[in-house]
Amino acid sequence: MTVRDRATDALFVGVALGDVWLSTGIFTDEDVDYVSITAALIAAFALVVRRRWPYVSFAVTVPAMFISEAAVATLIGLYTVARLRHNRRALVMCALLVAVGYASPWPPFDFSDIPGKAFLLNIVYATMTAAAPAFLGELVRTRHDLSLRLREIDEAREHERELIEQNVLAKERAQLAREMHDVVSHQVSLIAVRAGALQVSTPDPGTKDAAQTIRKLSIDTLDELRHMVNLLRASGSLETELTPQPTLADLERLIASSGIEVRMEGGVPTGLGAHSQRTIYRTVQEALTNVRKHAPGATAVVRIEHVGADLIVTITNTRPTRPTVPLPSARHGLMGLRERAELLGGVVETGPTDGGGFRVRLSLSATEE
After folding, report:
1. Cα-flanking dihedrals φ and ψ of residue 354, to 5°?
2. Does 266 reside within a domain?
3. Most buried pick, 55, 122, 157, 364, via CB within 10 A?
4. Residue 215: beta bridge partners?
5. CB neighbours of 195 closer than 8 A, spacing ≥ 6?
6. Residue at 170 is within a domain
């Protein structure tokens, strides 16, 4: 029971006790009917348990309606029955009992002495007095039930909206997976096949090495595409197992398989968190990919150094030595690197060098996450 409920119960008991004081003359010099006062006091304190046992509480208040002029406790008990119980038949019986109690005079006398018009008015007043708390309790209960139904409807609509969004997302994922499987994977497979044929047929060692690198990168790309297609077809299920995320332990393997001449300066740092390691790995990966795409024949240097409390990773490449083949690029890779770094409080700076090359510089805090 909440504090508000306790305060409401205390207020009702206080109002019922005030009715006892005003209607029974308990603190006056007049003759006091201790039977009616006792019944009225019991009725007032019976309201303490009205929420747990509405019918019991109401039944205890009824005698006070018949043998005293204190009626507030009984009316509150009737309101509680209408508010907390859904039995219409029982509510009508309780309301009739209240009406009879209100209409019955105390002390009792011969009803024949009451004029017919006054008797009829007394019946009307008794009926209205009993009907008011019953209808009020019904109204409050109906309003509460309606609020619960509206809340359930809102929750159902929200759940339905989420299901529709998930269905649309699943269709988009499935369509994207089909496109990747039917188009991208097919083209990468052709690249791998042609590179393998070139590796076998060419007598030039340099061309053979280049063809071998292209074939290996194509095969690795096919494996990644296959995994991405599986993830997309899973529609974002939480049970889908993701491949292990790269760490700095994979950095040397990345450089060795980059397909370009790369020199690494500085040791691999230790004591970094998983997010920092992944950010450094992706930065080096994106930079070397851009060198391979936009600077054919260039060499690169990956330098890792500590400057104060910061860890600086710089990837610099020379100018291209072969004609550049135009390739599609939306520069989303560099934008993603900047976003990754900003999440860790770092900075990514990019720009051309004086010798016609390009530089990517990542600055991160060297402390543990």
Report:
1. -65, -30
2. yes
3. 364
4. none
5. 211, 212, 214, 215, 218
6. yes
Is there a domain that residue 243 lies in? Answer: no
Residue 55, judged by CB atoms within 10 A of its CB (0-12, 13-18, 19+), counts as: middle
For 69-83, 109-123, 291-305, which range has the lowest pLDDT when averaged over its residues? Answer: 109-123
Q: Are residues 7 and 103 in the same domain?
A: yes
Pair (336, 267) in one structural domain: yes
Percentages helix, strand, coil for the chain (3-state, rounded to 5) are 65, 10, 25
Instruction: Provide the number of structural domains found in the chain.
Output: 3
**What's the pLDDT at 182?**
62
Residue with tokens 């619960």: 148
Q: Tell me how crowded residue 130 is: count the other CB atoms within 10 A of its CB.
A: 25
Q: Give, in order, the Cα–Cα distances in Å from 329 to each of 152, 188, 293, 332, 334.
A: 49, 18, 10, 8, 11
Phi-psi region of 103 (alpha: psi -120 to 50; beta: other; left: phi over 0): alpha
Unique residue bearing structure tokens 């060795």: 256
Which range marks the domain in which residue 45 is found? 3-154
Sheet holding 299-307, edge to edge: 261-265, 299-307, 310-317, 358-365, 347-352
Regarding whether 218 and 252 lie in a shared domain, the answer is no
Please state the pTM of the whole predicted model: 0.44
Does residue 37 sit within a domain? yes
With residue 301 as reference, give the H or E element that holds it. strand 299-307
Does the pLDDT value for residue 26 go beyond 90?
A: no
> Are residues 149 and 165 both part of a single domain?
no
